[in-house]
Amino acid sequence: MIESESLRATDAVLASEAARRYYLAGESKVDIAAAMNISRFKVARLLEAARAAGIVRIEVVDRGGVDGELSTRVRTAFGLRRCVVVDCPDDAPRLRAHVGSAGADVLLDVVGPDDVLGLPWARTVSAMLEALPALPPVPVVQLSGSMVIPGEHSPVDMVRAAAALAGQDASVFYAPFILDDADSAAALRRQPAVAAAMAEVDRVTVAVMSIGAWVPGHSTIHDAVDDAVRADVAATGAVGEALGVFVDAEGRAVHPELVDRMVTIGADQLRRVPERVALATGAAKAAAVQAFLTGGWATTLVTDRSLATSLVRRAGA
């Protein structure tokens, strides 16, 4: 038996030679045994001893701006199918660009020719589309109405751009995301063109969503409504939203009055989509993202290091 902690000089020489042949030259254990005139089993023991004694040090280095170890910790902590954590600076525009680019890579892995892709409007989703080189030949469906944001694309623009990449049809509708009252929203949803396009949502097999926190500056919907509506939503216990679906800290869907004023996918419809890819940036959204993950609203998460670190800490993982 080779005592790895205190290798004799002769064994240290043998362990070093075996390690160089195996790890650097790529020789098999059988070939090393023949060349060194020792048994294959002793080669295995020498390699084990080389690692234990520090002759060989193995380091796994993440490349491509992705933190593999943190990705695995978040995925395990929340039972996700996939998680990608990008390692990038914390300023918002660059975060969105990096997370959007990683989201594009994930989408290409997830979407197949038998899928139907659903897209909403969101800045991070827009960044994802800008990074997409192509898509499989899948139909693309609009999931939510439009919000007028200066300098930003509408969901109609985004869905049509994605459909052009796929070379397939786009199901779009022209409607605001938020209306003044529930009756107006209901009437708009009944209009034939809108109703026909919204009916396509039930066909969606892969939905992309961006998670927002119900605090100023971290949800486009929050910033678009007045203080009274914000307070009404907060009174339901909502900590975050995605696609106009609101959840409390336990990940349960809540139904503020604002939901009835929206033209968007419903909570039950979102639940039924087999693959739900969530994009989120910034540690300030940690409570909201944790709620969505705890509630099982996402199957895949693409996020940044600061938010992922907060999620792992909050989960005690």
What does this structure look like?
With 317 residues, this protein is an alpha/beta fold. The chain folds into two domains: 49 residues, Arc Repressor Mutant, subunit A (Orthogonal Bundle), CATH 1.10.10; 248 residues, Rossmann fold (3-Layer(aba) Sandwich). It is 46% helix and 13% strand. The chain contains 14 helices and eleven strands. The strands form two sheets. A seven-stranded parallel beta sheet has the order 1-11-10-5-2-3-4. The chain has a four-stranded antiparallel beta sheet with strand order 6-7-8-9. A hairpin with a 4-residue loop joins strand 8 and strand 9. Helix 5 packs across helix 6. It is elongated and about 85 Å long. The two termini are 38 Å apart.
Q: How many strands?
A: 11
Proportion of residues in extended strands: 5-15%
- By helix and strand content, what is the structural category? alpha/beta
Q: What's the CATH architecture name of the largest domain? A: 3-Layer(aba) Sandwich
Annotation field: number of helices: 14
Protein name: Transcriptional regulator
Keywords: DNA-binding, Transcription, Transcription regulation
Family: Belongs to the SorC transcriptional regulatory family.
Pfam families: Sugar-bind
